[in-house]
Design goal:
Layout: H1 16-23, H2 26-36, H3 42-48, E1 50-54, H4 56-60, H5 64-73, E2 76-84, H6 88-94, H7 104-114, E3 119-126, H8 134-142, H9 155-159, E4 169-171, H10 175-185, H11 188-200, H12 205-218, H13 226-236, H14 243-253, H15 259-269, H16 286-295
Antiparallel strand pairs: 1-3, 1-4, 2-3
Length: 297
């Protein structure tokens, strides 16, 4: 079998397929190479830092500051913060290994809101040492995509149920994802600033909060409740029997609808996931990581 690059060490991921795929991935390579010029311990950095993305839906629901409060109250320190615009290309690069499951509707709806305003990326590290890599722990504490499966104390539970698609927050799953995702979000110069700040370890909570207020100023608050969204859509385009028909006709004719209302309603009436398939690369729970570590994988 042709080898495209030396596989990553097991400390960066407990998934062999991910270790092989990321080793040959340009986003990962650029990020890891740049970090290696700043520190001799690339694996240590990726293991002890988490990356949290607060998306445009977190901006318009005014959830950035509550999320930053949760970070601090959960025992993490913000060590770097920067805005990022989620373009169509960024979105596909970020979720490339999972979006084989996305339907055409999910892709189209995601494009509607992703670039509506900047998002906020924060790099965090715990105030105390953790048993498992920080990104694995942070992802579990964030909570799952399915609102029904979230538990009190998890970030997504705190920020509220806005449906399957609008889940407000994303985290890098494993240490390898920390490096790759920073490679997706930022170009060379901004990524160096983020790495340098994170390596210094200073508390950047105040900077993150300042950026949050700037993002609030970019985008007006928006109610993401389903009932209110449907009511506004029907007022804008009366005469349709179903919300699905209304949105499909608007797409066909190019009629203008409020993008947030379209996303809220569309995520409820269109299928979001292709059934019967698995993602190219799955997530890793704390329990799975511990099991992999115990088995020496």
């Amino acid at each position: 079998m042709t080898r495209h690059a030396p596989p990553l060490p097991a400390a960066l991921s407990c998934l062999p397929d991910k270790r092989a795929a990321f080793a040959a991935d340009t986003y990962y390579q650029e990020s890891a190479e740049q970090l290696a010029a700043l520190t001799a311990d690339v694996t240590g950095f990726a293991t002890t830092h988490g990356v949290l993305l607060l998306k445009p839906d977190a901006v318009v629901t005014r959830s950035l500051l509550p999320a930053l409060d949760w970070v601090r109250e959960t025992g993490f320190r913000v060590v770097a913060a920067a805005p990022v615009r989620l373009t169509r290309t960024t979105v596909r690069a970020l979720w490339y290994f999972q979006w084989n499951l996305a339907t055409e509707y999910r892709r189209r709806l995601a494009d509607l809101f992703a670039a509506s305003t900047d998002s906020l990326v924060v790099v965090v590290r715990p105030e105390r040492a953790t048993e498992v890599p920080v990104p694995v722990l942070l992802t579990e504490l964030k909570g799952p995509t399915d609102p029904a499966a979230r538990e009190p104390g998890q970030l997504r539970h705190l920020l509220g149920d806005h449906g399957y698609l609008l889940n407000l927050a994303h985290t890098a799953d494993e240490p390898a994802d920390v490096l790759r995702e920073l490679g997706v979000y930022f170009g060379q110069s901004e990524r160096e600033r983020v790495f340098t700040a994170a390596l210094a370890g200073d508390d950047e909570q105040d900077r993150a909060r300042k950026l949050a207020h700037e993002l609030y100023a970019q985008a007006p608050r928006h109610d993401l409740g389903y009932g209110a969204a449907v009511e506004r859509l029907r007022r804008a385009a009366p005469g349709y029997g179903s919300v699905r028909e209304l949105i499909e006709e608007a797409w066909r004719t190019g009629a203008a609808l409020d993008p947030w209302d379209t996303v809220v309603a569309g995520a409820s009436v269109f299928p979001m996931r292709r059934k019967g398939f698995e993602p190219l690369l799955g997530g890793v729970t704390v329990a799975q990581w511990r099991r992999c570590a115990a088995e020496g994988q």
